[in-house]
Fold this sequence. Notes:
It contains two helices and three strands. Strands 1-2-3 form a three-stranded parallel beta sheet, covered by helices on one side. It has a single domain, classed as NAD(P)-binding Rossmann-like Domain (Rossmann fold, 3-Layer(aba) Sandwich), CATH 3.40.50. The longest helix has 13 residues. Helix content is 39%, strand content 18%.
Amino acid sequence: MRESGAEIGVLAVPESAAAETYAGLIAAGIRAVINFAPIRLEPNAGVRVKNVDLRINLEEVAFFLSH
């Protein structure tokens, strides 16, 4: 990631792998993370985190389809 200059990471792993993968992203120099894992992650060491709960988004889309 450092070689490519990537600053944003997308985390889409099972809950059991989220913390370790997040730590790896931080160690690699990522500065912002979009988290789709089913666990809330907290900002760490100057890294911004956007936690996305897909269940809520899917529920909203399903609502739109039913009305």
